[in-house]
Automatic annotation (TrEMBL):
Domain VOC: residue ranges: 3-131
Organism phylogeny: Bacteria, Pseudomonadati, Bacteroidota, Sphingobacteriia, Sphingobacteriales
GO biological process: L-methylmalonyl-CoA metabolic process
Name of the featured protein: Methylmalonyl-CoA epimerase
Keyword Metal-binding on entry: yes
UniProt organism field: Pedobacter steynii
Keywords recorded for this protein, A-Z: Metal-binding
Matches recorded under CDD domains: MMCE (cd07249)
Length: 135
């Protein structure tokens, strides 16, 4: 793992939260995107090398909706940038971590992603991210 890629924050209202984070971070949201396969709308902010991803549910069955119902708004996950997501997934499986998906998925912000089960990471949802290289 090379660095923290971003911190994901679950929010109930993406528009209101974008306004709040634009004021808080003194920068505009640089990208909004829907990830239909995950039932989520995202908004990204960057200050220096740091990125924040706001996540809101698009339907009541999405993982974010369930998170919000159970825990309320707040930090949802921490994402780490990896050079080769397949190698990292294989390494972590061999170390005994449980992956929430066996193959990387296409996520927001031009990334391949995979999540680790929080039961094996002291309750923290960990995401692996690899930049999709455009040809």
């Amino acid at each position: 793992m090379r660095k923290i890629e971003h911190i994901g924050i679950a929010v109930k209202d993406l528009d209101l939260s974008c306004d709040l984070y634009e004021k808080l971070l003194n920068t505009a949201c640089y990208k909004r995107e829907e990830v239909a396969s995950e039932g989520v709308n995202t908004a990204f902010f960057k200050t220096g090398e740091n990125k924040i991803e706001l996540l809101s549910a698009t339907n009541a069955d999405s993982p974010i909706a369930k998170f919000l119902e159970k825990k309320g708004e707040g930090i949802h996950h921490i994402a780490f940038d990896v050079e080769d997501i397949y190698e990292e997934m294989d390494r972590l499986k061999k170390e005994g971590f449980v992956l929430l998906n066996e193959e990387p998925k296409t996520g927001a912000d031009n990334k391949l992603i995979c999540f680790l089960h929080p039961k094996g990471t002291n309750g923290v949802l960990v995401e692996l991210c690899q930049e999709i290289k455009l040809k």
